[in-house]
Amino acid sequence: MILVNGVATASLPVSDRGLAYGDGVFRTFAMRNGRVCAWRRQVAKLAADARALGIQCPEETVLQTEVAEAARDAAQCAVKIIVTRGSGARGYAYAEAHGPTRIVSTSAPPPYPQHWHERGVAVRMCSLRLARQPALAGIKHLNRLENVLARAEWNDPDIAEGLLQDSAGCVIGGTMSNLFLLTGDALMTPDLSQCGVAGVTRERVIEAARRNGVGCRVAAVSLDELLASTEAILVNSLIGAWHIRHLGAVAWRQDSMTATVRRWLDEDDD
Amino acid sequence: MILVNGVATASLPVSDRGLAYGDGVFRTFAMRNGRVCAWRRQVAKLAADARALGIQCPEETVLQTEVAEAARDAAQCAVKIIVTRGSGARGYAYAEAHGPTRIVSTSAPPPYPQHWHERGVAVRMCSLRLARQPALAGIKHLNRLENVLARAEWNDPDIAEGLLQDSAGCVIGGTMSNLFLLTGDALMTPDLSQCGVAGVTRERVIEAARRNGVGCRVAAVSLDELLASTEAILVNSLIGAWHIRHLGAVAWRQDSMTATVRRWLDEDDD
Questions:
Q1: Which residues of A touch B175 (CB under 8 A)?
Q2: Cα–Cα dist A76/A244, whole Å
Q3: For residue B258, what is the DSSP state?
Q4: In this complex, do B110 and A91 lie within 8 Å of one another by their Cβ atoms?
Q5: Residues A145, B145: C-beta atoms closer than 8 Å
Q6: Contact B103/A14, CB-based, under 8 Å?
Q7: Euclidean distance between CA atoms A17 and A89, whole angstroms
Q8: ipTM score here?
Q9: What is the mean pLDDT of residues A149-159?
């Protein structure tokens, strides 16, 4: 089901700036047995991203009602919330008076093979390099052509994800996921102040690590550091955590920290 | 009037990837007395931009018919054509089978003051720096948040345009226009291989300069080169050519090359 500003409809005005300029933000997350995991964080991140673009974010209660309505007939589903700056006249300038557009939609959970969860995934390095744009870094906005081009680099169904470097060579994460590395007994995750999307699950893992006395550095990650890590983990709100098993000819065997991360995510559900 | 895939409607499926990811390209141009200036170039550029993203561009004859239909009741108007990758399931990957969405719409010509055309315009330097992304540079795609943020930096109605530098400090152009500088008796326009939109009017001016024996270099432009130029000109398909009169405290007096550029644009209309 799709709700646009609370109304069940599958269509949107062509004049919406979300279409014209990608002028909006979004979130995607899982609903299981009628519950959204880490709902408050999802809403807080949506609001923070909207604020960073000067877009007024709808109230949490409005979103909560609409997510429940959209997911009414689905115990398990993927939920997507888009908030755009709303409709406007042609041209980049916008008037303050325009109200935002909110779109709440549900779809079937992505059909990832169960063995990806159990035994880890094969990934590849994408050749596309992410541009460094501090004004947009971290924000889950609707300008996602880099991700589209990167994802189009492969169609081997056995490759679960592509890893991305930025123009300076720093490893940033996957096309749809954030990355954690285990080095010694501490975690490390790429700094996203220049590019990339700072996901809610990434934030939850960083906080859980600190709460559980596990070191977790946020820093620039080189390809060498990725390859030298003892365990590499991809996270997002739909997949939870996947252990990277192969990157080309490079193999990781360890997955105990992946199990720990999953436990943290199960325990912390605010 | 708005036509979506040839049908008069003001709405679009929410599942369109143009909304989800800015996964599409567009063109904006003027129609005057039922004629589109440089129509073939507009279509050729739309097709080239679509091809660069792996999007199938509609046939020229289809677009021509729909532009005529959309502009039926308007002698003077701005025309916008958007071509997106079409509707798709959630996720960055796309299936080849999806057909593109084409949206043809018209609106009133932008109400720029006549004196901007006659006496030149005041512009400002934007603080936002464009990211360098060679994979998307030059393409008029729907990922335009940088332009939106830059345009939001001012609301003084006497400022006609904002100039943008990239992250390396190179001057790239305006938020909605391309830039030409006169230095000595030769023109220069910023190289757009790292960022920016390579507009049709820019291409027409470059070719007309060559045809008329005026030197025209495409090169990296520094802020110093901009400030040291004897004439600075903004171009796009809606404004034609504007002479920059003021950039903060800096003033340009000369506008004879602007008149020449306008003459070139009037003469070359293929």
A1: 92
A2: 25
A3: H
A4: yes
A5: no
A6: yes
A7: 9
A8: 0.96
A9: 97
Distance from CA of B183 to the nearest CA of A (A): 30
> CA B71 → CA B65, B76, B106, B221, distances in Å?
10, 9, 6, 38
pLDDT higher than 90, residue B98: no
Distances B87 to A22, B61, B84, B94, B195 between C-alpha atoms, Å: 15, 23, 8, 9, 27
* Closest chain A C-alpha to B210 CA, distance in angstroms: 31
The amino acid present at B203, given as its one-letter code, is E
B22–A143: do the CB atoms touch at under 8 Å?
yes
Q: Are A148 and B92 in contact (CB < 8 Å)? A: yes
A145 and B12: CB-CB below 8 Å? Answer: no
Determine the residue of chain B that is closest to A52 in CA distance: B149
Tokens of B8: 């008069």
Does A131 reach chain B within 8 Å, measured CB to CB? yes
Residue A225 sits at the chain B interface (C-beta within 8 Å): no
Q: Give the per-residue pLDDT at A34.
A: 86
**pLDDT digits 0-9 by tens, A28-47:** 999 998 899 899 999 999 99
* A4 reaches B (C-beta below 8 A): yes
Q: Which of A131, A126, A228, A224 is nearest to A177 (CA)?
A: A126
Contact A104, A81 (CB under 8 A): yes
